[in-house]
Design goal:
The complex is a heterodimer of chains A (326) and B (248). With 326 residues, chain A is mostly helical. Chain A has 13 helices and four strands. Classes of the chains: A mainly alpha (326), B alpha/beta (248).
């Protein structure tokens, strides 16, 4: 077993242990904190596919996060009001089922990512960063100016959506659900990274001309990666809305996009558990320092500076060393 | 004579006022090594770029195996069988030599949209890749990241990739550069055999290698072909001697 695998298993166990230890110690609040870690990690795992494996620095993944959140919020609000969701040519009943909501969230984000990716991926570097940011800001202002679902005030989910066989209102149950989704997605990410698709994607990051010269069109590979990436982040968005039982345009703001990038850089770009390590550190720092000072982000900035200057591989890279591709 | 594999007709390419390619017509026939020589800045690499698709020609025709290539992308041209090595080697530098070749194998199999099976355990990828590496003599370096290979080894690796592509023509841009005398000699012997598999359009500054290998030579000066002919014809051509070979 490689050192990185051992570290990954360790991180997975620590994240799993936090809510149990917290409950034992009589601080159930930490269960929510651990759930937040798992969901932010999931969102960043999605971004890590595009940014880490593909080298596509998307500064607009909050758009997909928000689409996932609004999928949960909108469907739940229609289920609550018993008004069908009328799209003009077809109408749907709302739903409280997470499984249906996740499917809708993933499908909607997939379509949006297909459109944003098809336009943005014609550029690269700084232009790609700016175009993805611009698209995300467009969705942000759209959400703000759309009064039907709360506009700037956001939309409340009165009762957390349901999952078969689980009482999602119990914090520990909801944590385990989110944790399970995170682990399942990590398994998929590990498989994809080692697959033919993952090879082509990583090769396109290293040398686009090389990939084209063996007859693989980099654009199609990247577009597929961008879509899968957006869909994963949307799934996290749906869970995040259910965690807070609230969704607002702030889920789509550029701060959120930046936060996902920060998580990945802190934890380790392109590393399987980089986003997990990053999210655990981030939420911990936010909670511990946020309790002491409103300027906790200053210290986050210092941590980021230290990682960029002294530990380019993030926490995972620092602990496990450089990647060696087989 | 058989139809040429690759036929370039009246190709033009300008960068502003600079005519990098001016009315170039060149054929690459089955089984031949056609060397392209000329002073620095004559437009040799620019020509290769236009054939491979990394640059677009302003006008003229590039016909490969009967099909016009002008409007195809780099990837589409590669899939049709144009294998290429670069003047400055171009590899996925974090990947091992083996994985660089495996990328070509997976492209040939037309299967980059497979998401779950690991590539490293897949013999349908690793076996042909190892075979291609063995042909250029890199089998013992298979697991070394491309970034850690020597200049000469990277050139060999690029040729191995072109082999794994099952190329129907090779475009080799200075394959001998950065190789020691022994490496050049071994590669000369290898290319001499390789032409039987597919013809080679060869850019090379090593004149010993060019004269030993080429069936025909075209001389490019300021974007124009000033002469095409056999080794002896080119050696004795007065215009070529004046423009390029040096008339001492």
């Amino acid at each position: 077993m490689s050192r990185e695998t051992i570290i990954n298993i360790g991180l997975a166990l620590v994240l799993l242990a936090i809510p149990f230890v917290a409950t034992q110690m009589g601080s159930p609040f930490y269960v929510t904190l651990a759930t937040r870690m798992a969901i932010l990690a999931l969102a960043a795992v999605g971004l890590n596919l595009a940014l880490g494996l593909g080298g596509l620095v998307s500064f607009g993944h909050a758009a997909f996060f928000g689409v996932g959140g609004y999928a949960a919020g909108i469907l739940a609000s229609h289920a609550f009001s018993m008004q069908p969701l009328d799209l003009g040519f077809v109408a749907f009943a709302g739903t409280n089922s997470m499984l249906v909501i996740w499917l809708v969230a993933i499908a909607a984000a997939g379509l949006l990512a297909l459109f944003i990716g098809a336009v943005s991926l014609r550029t690269s570097g700084v232009y790609f960063i700016m175009i993805t940011l611009a698209f995300a800001q467009m969705t942000y202002y759209f959400a703000i100016s759309w009064p039907a679902y709360g506009g700037e005030d956001g939309l409340s989910i009165f009762v957390r959506n349901t999952f078969p066989g689980i009482n999602t209102m119990v914090p520990m149950s909801f944590f385990l659900l989110c944790y399970g989704v995170l682990m399942a997605v990590l398994v998929l990410f590990a498989l994809v990274a080692r697959s033919r698709f993952g090879s082509a994607l990583q090769a396109a990051r290293q040398n686009e001309v090389r990939v084209a010269s063996v007859g693989i069109a980099p654009f199609r590979i990247r577009l597929a990666a961008f879509v899968i990436s957006g869909m994963t982040t949307a799934l996290a968005g749906a869970l995040y809305a259910d965690l807070n039982r609230f969704v607002s345009p702030s889920m789509m703001s550029w701060h959120m996009s930046g936060e996902f990038i920060v998580l990945i850089i802190l934890g380790g770009v392109a590393r399987l558990f980089g986003p997990v390590a990053g999210a655990m550190m981030f939420v911990m720092v936010e909670y511990l320092l946020g309790g002491m000072t409103d300027r906790w982000q200053f210290f986050l900035g210092l941590a980021l500076l230290a990682v960029v200057l002294f530990a380019r591989g993030g926490l995972i890279g620092f602990l496990a060393g450089k990647v060696r591709h087989g | 004579m058989a139809e040429p594999v690759l036929s370039i007709r009246n190709l033009h390419k300008s960068f502003g006022a600079l005519k990098a390619t001016e009315d170039v017509s060149i054929d690459l026939n089955p089984g031949e090594i056609h060397a392209l020589i000329g002073p620095n800045g004559a437009g040799k690499s620019t020509l290769i770029h236009q054939i491979a698709g990394t640059l677009k020609a302003d006008s003229g025709q590039i016909v490969f195996l009967g099909d016009r290539l002008n409007d195809l992308s780099v990837a589409e041209r590669a899939r049709r069988g144009l294998g290429r090595s670069f003047q400055v080697s171009s590899l996925a530098t974090e990947f091992s030599a083996l994985r660089n070749v495996m990328l070509a194998v997976q492209s040939v199999q037309g299967s980059s949209f497979r998401f779950f099976n690991p590539v490293m355990g897949d013999a349908s990828l690793t076996e042909p890749a190892r075979a291609a590496l063995a042909r250029v003599g890199l089998e013992t370096r298979a697991d070394v990241p491309a970034a850690e290979l020597s200049h000469g080894e990277r050139r060999q690796l690029e040729i191995a990739i072109a082999l794994a592509l099952g190329s129907k023509a090779f475009l080799l841009d200075e394959p001998m550069a950065g190789m020691g005398p022994e490496g050049s000699k071994a590669l000369t012997g290898f290319l001499s055999e390789l032409r039987k598999e597919a013809p080679i359009l060869l850019i090379e500054h090593d004149m010993d290698a060019v004269f030993a290998l080429a069936d025909r030579i075209s001389v490019l000066v300021y974007g124009r072909v000033i002469a095409t002919g056999t080794v002896d014809e080119i050696r004795t051509n007065p215009e070529v001697r004046r423009a390029y070979l040096g008339d001492e």
